[in-house]
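Sequence in, structure out. First:
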Amino acid sequence: MNPGLDNLQPYPFERLRKLTANLQAANLSPIALTIGEPKHAAPEFVLDVMREALSSINQYPATAGSPALRETISHWLKQRFNLQGISPEQILPVNGTREALFAIAQTLVTPGSPGRVICPNPFYQIYEGAALLAGSQPTFVAAGADTGFLPDFGSLTSEQWDQCELLYICTPGNPSGAVMPLEDLQTLLKLAEEHDFVIVSDECYSEIYADEAAPPAGLLQAAAAMGNHDYTRCLAFHSLSKRSNLPGLRSGFVAGDADVLAAFLRYRTYHGCAMPPHHQAASIAAWQDEEHVYANRALYREKFEVVVPLLNPVLPVERPAAGFYLWPSTPTSDESFAVELVTHCNVAVLPGQYLGRAVNGINPGANHVRMALVAELAQCVEAAERIVHHLKTG
């Protein structure tokens, strides 16, 4: 057995199920604010394209994806991030960013030594699992309130950067929604050049943001602004799951350094993870259209505009710059608060400590909960009203 398997911690939702398994929930319809699974309707025109393309299912797809899909993604990247150009060799379609974020560590990391992978804390648990199963113990960088929930990369030493082979970042961040400024991304790019590591930027929340005039910056955009049009040491990961409400399509891409992607393609060819042809056709349709994405942002914007003022009198909630999570601190421990909300409100939230790890006795996710505003507006409002009523009267 791979010894890294013994070090894998239970997934956050598994821990939540165990925490709440024997609770007597309030006699109200359950509302889950836990999993970041979009509940808005999938674009019907994308589903129509996929149905029409089912005849291609009798063909083996290329691991590199079709030229049409890569050209479509290239056009989207140039428009969205103001890039001068990006070639098909700098783009690789993947079956959702989750599997690719895991697999990239298997390609880049030399096994047998700790510190090869650096990632934020709290974090998407795939980063940790990828590091462990690649044979390395990750280094965690706190992303707490004192840094605006951005990772405190300034706390790392030169020796730690020298050890690093892969740096995971998430912008907009999960769980806080904090967006890394372009200047911060460029600082990391300079460190990557100095210490020779690859930056893996998880940007799957990049298309859900508050201000239409200020979309979040991306890693490739930061590189291009520095004159790095080869995107050396840069890999940006994007997905249709959140952007287009298509989590079950399992469609995304990674773009950036062509040399790194050539090695990743070789790995993926053996791994056997080519995107099905009808999924590729649907993806082309989704990446070519922005109207449904604008409408999607408007739905989330409406939920934040209603829910945040409702909760503010009883919980310190702030509307995030991007993403669809609230990340409030809790009046009691995060686990106790989650239990309390199920017991009295039948509203499920995710304890923040499950998304972080204790370093020197401090878990920066502790005493926060993550609330995913993915349900329809009426359900989100009802959940907020139940929480407010309980905290005011309980």
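Second:
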Amino acid sequence: MKKNIYDDPVFFNKYSQMERSIKGLEGAGEWTTLESMLPDFSGKRVLDLGCGFGWHCQYAVERGATSVVGVDISERMLAVAKEKTSEEIVYVHEPIETVNIAQSSFDVVISSLAFHYIEPFEGVLGRIYSWLVGGGDLVFSVEHPIFTSEGIQDWCYDTNGNIRHFPVDNYFYEGRRETRFLGERVLKYHKTLTTYLNSLIQVGFEITGVVEPQPSESMLELDASLRNELRRPMVLVVSTRKR
């Protein structure tokens, strides 16, 4: 099984202290947008790819899903998920790229901030397409291509430490990027917006929504520094349906 940063004890400890790790869905800035794009889970079989701590799995259970499966490559993440979420949820310790799932076995597939860790995106989409029933939904979020293109994923500052701009470079050169996240070296895979959307179309999905989340006015009132998040997109959320 391929290595992943989330099983590194130092990185995992830092990640566990993040607001989204402590508060769950309410601590994720993009959650309001993602939630608005999710289908009705009532009576549905739901698969969460890159489920992490299982917050989205728990959300699906609480909204009437008949079965929920969470897949993640991290043993440490799944250990927390099993401890903090419903016993009804089945967790699978496998990479998204190789997990074995029967055809037409799910009504909804969701994924939150996981696909930018995967290189063969179209191949994974083809597998997801086969796992869904006709009319089934795929809804996912990823780090925005603007955010992943240059690699460093930090602002450019002036000599006084003030933000000047966000760097965008090598946008059309897709592939591996090395960045620093929580002070640790993390590998990701940059893809253009064209690749994300056209891959969905070519596999056979109908795109039903594309949103670049922005901080809400209430969030901006609570934290003025969030206005910098209006200077460049950080997350992309896409909803689709199997034809």
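Remark: The CA atoms of residues 11 and 229 lie 24 Å apart.
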